[in-house]
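User: Predict the complex.
Assistant: Input components as received:
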Amino acid sequence: MAVDTAVPPIVQMRDITIQFPGVLALDQVDFSLRPGEIHALMGENGAGKSTLIKALTGVYHIDSGTIEVAGARRVFDSTAAAQDAGISTVYQEVNLCANLSVGENVMLGHEPRRQGRIDWTAVHAEAQRHLKNLGLELDTRSVLSSHSIAIQQLVAISRAMVLDSKVLILDEPTSSLDRGEVEQLFAVMRELRESGVAILFVSHFLDQVYEVSDRITVLRDGGLVGEFLVADLPRDALVTKMIGREMTDLAEISEKSDRAIDRDGAPVLSASGIGRRGGVAPADVSVYKGEVIGFAGLLGSGRTELARLIYGADRADSGEMQIHGDNVKVHSPRQAMEHGIAFSSENRRDEGIIADLTVAENIVFGIQAQRGWTRRVKNGEQDAIVKDYIAALGVRPADPTMRAGNLSGGNQQKVLLARWLATAPELMVLDEPTRGIDVGAKADIQRKVAELSDKGLSVIFISSELEEVLRLAQRIVVMRDRHKIGELDSHDVDAAGLIDYIANNEAGSVAR
Amino acid sequence: MTKILKHRLFWPAAALVSLLAVNIIANQSFARITMRDGQLYGALIDILRQSAPLMLVALGMTLVIATRGIDLSVGAIMAVSGAVALTIIDSSPSPGSLGTVAVAVVVALLVSLVLGAWNGFLVSVLGIQPIIATLVLMLAGRGVALLITGGAITTVNSAPLKFIASGYLFILPFAFFISVAAIATVGLLERRTALGVLTEAVGINPEASRLAGVRARGIKWSAYVASGLLAGIAGVIYASNISAADANAAGFLIELYAILAVVLGGTSLMGGKFSIAGTVIGVLTVQTLGSTILFFGVPSAQSPVVFAAVVILVVLLQSDLVHRTAKRVWSQVRAEFTSSNQQDTEVAS
């Protein structure tokens, strides 16, 4: 759809600069948003997308530059101030009250009153009306948390409409939605566009950006690359602009390594019948030296649960484990580590990064834990290790003294990878190491995994992206409904075949 | 310059320096240090001597707070420690001998260590919330101390005991050397080994630390043991000061003053990053404030109010929000000043 450039922008940001300790997060960035358009903000992790959004919504104080909303210069010192000016944000993690009803959430703070008391009948009627405007049929008296994330996001959008927002910011709204839910969200977005709402859309999925957006602004390393009409910007050009180099990286790795795995002798790890009541049904897993085993299955299929048992993060209540053919007990991460197993959790923020420590301290943290408190990693040794890994994995910014919590998601993942590699493990369990990170970092991490396994590291690789699993793994353990339903050779199957297997094979059927 | 301003210890140190400055301006004799019989005397020396118990307790408290915990039992442990030491000396045939006092102190410290270990057990093994776990001993400890002393205030006359709190080594009070030794030991133990960074990690993100293979349980436990032991030493100093074991008065409310000192020193109650130097500054600030109130002759009935008012002031001085607001107001004032100046020049031309 053509955007009328004659319409004055509703949001005009000029020369926005934000300085964090040691990092120039945004460097004189211009951005404009017009009524009735869907505008995608693109860039790799750490490019400054979130920072720009937070500058607009009053979360961050801008060091220089101006923000105009509807022609008037504004300085927002809180999200409430931005909201009053008609700017609403719907985040990836829905920020509503999960324990209240749908209707209460939609109308919160704007409840119709009668004689000073809230008129609940009117609240729900009003909420129903707003939801219907977005094409949603919901019981407004149902508790919000009983609905899927997709519905919760649509409720959050309804709420933004109650606030009469002229600008709607959707930050990664689709990352946990299935295809049908994405369609529903897009229908709502198009509807709002018709009614003149300006929508700022952030997503890692290129397909979705091209499907729904009118215009794209690209950021890289805190600077503005440019603003483009979707029609004028082919995909490969967009990716090139985002990463600042040609996009051949992923193609390289896709040449699957046809290295033969030596399966004579004892595997590095062999688990037989390990399971946990309420977690995952007993399953067998074995990994040989230099082998990459993929765990495939839907979210919640038991992939993570099985990985956690192998690492001792949760205690298995059945089964046995052997390392190099010797029986071992792994009841804690500590014990797993002593047997040369490393585990990187899917939940970087809560189970990975120690946010308040520096990048350097986070990288040597695994070694330090291994050595115990008495043998500190000396400064010189730390500097050498950290320098090597920052360079090898391309952590950006390459500043070892930076607070790790200030890194973007992709770079935090690289730091975690570095932490584990530094401990020189024999088996590395990587749970969703590429989730929510950009193509460049994703390629870096995949390449590193391929390279390490060539050198003899064994890897268990868990990912929701089947192409990624197929590309890296030699064998694939398929999970469904907390059961291992089979094991496939990745040469014998493609993505479509794998999906079919996940969807159709019965648990317990023999597959090899 | 901005680097100094941004240093995490700048505001804590500024608070201490201004407090000292106020005293010296009000009365120059505050800064006077005199030498008598090869020993230094003066208000500042008194602060160093008297701050020893709080210093020890606050050091332990810093470690516990860094693990996201809190230790409310330190005052009670002081009481128990004093009671044990004095009871041993009192029942000995030679209370004045160095050997007796040495045995008494060692036993008292061992008991304190066990009490600290008990706290650590409740928190790190049984997983009881620190505030509840240490509340048990806070309430029960003084009862135990009273039981040991038989319900009375045990007084002794023992020169070696008296020396601990009131004696001089070279030209400075012996108690000051105990403080310095404790600061140095804790500082070296935390920063020369990896104990400090592991303690911080456990405080910042316990689950991530566990998954990284850190023995989080042991790290937490050690903090409570250290806190108990340090409180035990503080208890001995307190008992030495009055040559008596007073189960009710020993270390009364010291847990709160210690928490205050730790926070004034810039360590967050949320756990994680801690600063030994900050705690030292915090302790000296609290102690100086106490002395100031005496020095200014504030009636004892009103002194808590004055104390609280100054603490609020100091806390505000360190608040980020206040810094930001001050910065904004200042830049507005400056902007208006320059623009009105410009107008003046325009009018003039």
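Chain A has a mean pLDDT of 85.
Let me know if you want any component modeled separately.
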